[in-house]
Inverse folding.
C-alpha cells in the first residue's frame, strides 16, 4: 500500500 | 528524495544545531521549554524504533542517529548540566494534555493496528503539538532570545517544506499519507503567528516581543 513508502522519511 | 524534503531536513538539522549552539555559547537554557524538548525526544524515540531493523539509506540512518542523540543531549543539558538556568516557573504547560490525546488518537486513527505502526502514528501526532509548551512559555515570558526565534523559525519551516514534499510526492510518485499530511499541516499552522512575529520583528533587527 502507498503508506509503506512514506516510512522512508525522517 | 526531492529538494523540498532535503531542504526540510537541513532546516530541521539547522534548528537542532542552533539550539545546541545557543545553549553551549550562552551556557544557559533560559527561555527554553524543557517540556517541548522532552516531547521532541519522545517523538524521535517512538518514530525511529526501526533504526536498526529497517535500513533505508546511509543518509536516513545518519540523520536518525543525529536527531535521536541531539534531542536526548538537549534534554540532558536542560535538566542536569544547565539546570540552574532552567526557567521552570514559566515552563508550565501540562504535557499530559498532549500525550494522552495523541496516544488515544494513535490507537483509534492509524493505518495498521500494530505496535510499530501505532508508535509511529503517535510520534506523528505528538510532533504536531510538541512545540506548544515552548510557544506557551514565550507567551508567558512575553519575549524570546533572537537565537531562540531563529531556532523556532527553522523548526517551523522544516515541516512547512515537508508539506511541499508531500505535494510533490503525491503528483509525481503517487505517494500519499493522509496522517502525516494532516498532522504536518496542523504543526505548521501552529507556527503561523510566530512566523508573523518573526518576519515583522526579528528580521527587522528587533527582539521578539509579544504584544503585552
Amino acid at each position: 500500500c502507498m503508506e509503506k513508502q512514506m516510512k522512508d522519511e525522517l | 528524495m526531492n529538494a523540498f524534503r532535503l531542504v526540510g531536513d537541513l532546516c530541521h538539522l539547522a534548528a537542532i544545531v542552533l539550539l545546541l549552539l545557543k545553549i553551549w555559547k550562552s551556557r544557559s537554557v533560559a527561555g527554553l521549554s524543557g517540556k517541548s524538548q522532552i516531547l521532541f525526544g519522545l517523538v524521535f524515540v517512538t518514530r525511529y524504533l526501526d533504526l536498526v531493523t529497517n535500513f533505508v539509506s546511509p543518509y536516513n540512518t545518519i540523520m536518525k542517529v543525529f536527531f535521536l542523540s541531539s534531542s536526548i543531549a538537549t534534554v540532558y543539558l536542560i535538566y542536569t548540566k544547565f539546570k540552574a538556568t532552567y526557567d521552570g516557573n514559566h515552563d508550565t504547560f501540562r504535557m499530559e494534555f498532549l500525550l494522552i490525546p495523541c496516544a488515544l488518537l494513535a490507537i483509534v486513527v492509524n493505518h495498521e493496528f500494530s505496535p510499530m505502526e501505532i508508535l509511529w502514528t503517535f510520534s506523528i501526532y505528538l510532533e504536531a503539538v510538541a512545540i506548544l509548551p515552548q510557544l506557551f512559555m514565550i507567551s508567558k515570558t512575553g519575549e524570546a532570545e533572537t537565537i531562540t526565534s531563529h531556532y523556532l523559525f527553522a523548526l517551523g519551516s522544516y515541516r512547512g517544506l515537508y508539506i511541499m514534499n508531500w505535494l510533490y510526492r503525491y503528483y509525481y510518485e503517487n505517494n500519499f499519507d493522509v496522517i502525516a499530511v494532516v498532522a504536518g499541516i496542523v504543526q505548521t499552522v501552529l507556527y503561523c503567528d510566530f512566523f508573523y512575529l518573526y518576519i515583522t520583528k526579528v528580521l527587522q533587527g528587533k527582539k521578539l516581543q509579544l504584544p503585552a
Summary: The first helix of chain A runs from residue 2 to 6. Chain A touches chain B through nine residues (CB under 8 Å). The radius of gyration of chain A is 6 Å. The CA atoms of residues 4 and 10 of chain A lie 13 Å apart.
